[in-house]
Amino acid sequence: MNKLTIITPDDWHLHLRDSPFMEAVVADTARQFGRAIIMPNLSPPVRSCADAMAYRQRILAALPAQSHFTPLMTLYLTDNTSVEDIQAAGESEFIHGAKLYPAGATTNSAAGVTDLAKLDRVFEAMQEHRLVLQVHGEATAPEVDIFDREKVFIEQSLCRIRKDFPELRIVFEHITTLDAVEYVRAGDGFLAATITPHHLLINRNAIFQGGIRPHHYCLPVAKRERHRQALLDAASAGEARFFAGTDSAPHSKDAKEAACGCAGIYSAHTAVELYAEAFELAGDFSNFEKFMSCNGADFYGLPQNSGTLSLARNEWLVPDSLPYPDSSLVPFRAGETLHWKVVDGE
Ligand code: NCD
Ligand code: ZN
Hints:
With 346 residues, this protein is of the alpha/beta class. The chain has helices spanning 21-32, 49-62, 83-91, 120-128, 149-164, 178-185, 197-201, 225-236, 253-256, 271-282, 288-300, and strands at residues 3-7, 10-14, 35-38, 70-76, 95-100, 132-135, 170-172, 191-195, 242-244, 308-317, 322-324, 327-329, 337-345. The strands form 3 sheets. It has an 8-stranded parallel β-sheet with strand order 2-3-4-5-6-7-8-9, with helices on both faces. The chain has a 3-stranded antiparallel β-sheet with strand order 1-10-13, with helices on one face. A two-stranded antiparallel ribbon has the order 11-12. The protein is globular and about 50 Å long. Bound molecules: N-carbamoyl-L-aspartate (NCD) and zinc ion. N-carbamoyl-L-aspartate is lined by residues 15, 41, 106-107, 136, 218-219, 247, 249, 263-264.
């Protein structure tokens, strides 16, 4: 196969940051995707409808001329999120969900939720207003091993949320384990999961290959090879509950290559091409379009995009770095050869 044409895909989990950093990255996503769920972990976070509307306007203003890209907004849940905030979000055309960051789980999550029990009325309101709950599914208690955080979160938190709010639509974001794949498979139509390109392509060895590799460090961290295999099976099998969400999370080269480097992988530059590499590894492109362009829209209750995106088999070298204010940005697979290239979108 030398050419792939799919319905214009969507990115169901994306970090764009804010001006002036957003201006350096937004065109990479807009070139390939029709829409993206824009993560709200700015500093300070996107907590209210007014915050989300203002952020959406800044994104639209930063888009290249002629771009048809649509940002889909989500609120950042805190201990103080009110039922009124949720009601307003439910009534807004632009807000599609709310994101749960357990406090301390990841970048800019300090304002996240400290006690899930405090959110019962918020979850109830989200269920009523048909907002999607996007979950960073990692337990944060310091005694939990970093490689077990996702599994423990399922047992301690996700099971309870789903039992108490059975009709709350939940996206288990950036899953990294066989446990999560099995849990989502065993669920119902109210549960789905996003999978990143990097978790389809690397296992935890990549973080330590010949030395410490900060550009392979993200949260949740990559796991063992058998977990990567399970993710690749789930993505490529065409199951409706799994879809693309890059979790592209830019941090400057300086912030990554530091004694305490930031978590996050910048994949937006090559996102669809990376997913194509992964499906090539799986040896089957028959469900590529479902995973990239259909399953997510169906779960979110949005129409599929009307345009198409084409990729051609074409070897090309990913640049070592990209422009970024005050520093530079190292993309995933920097300096390596990819085998698929986006050739045109409409
Ligand atoms: C994300 C970021 O940098 O905002 N980092 C990451 O490693 N994925 C936050 C997140 O999604 O956990
Ligand atoms: Zn993320």
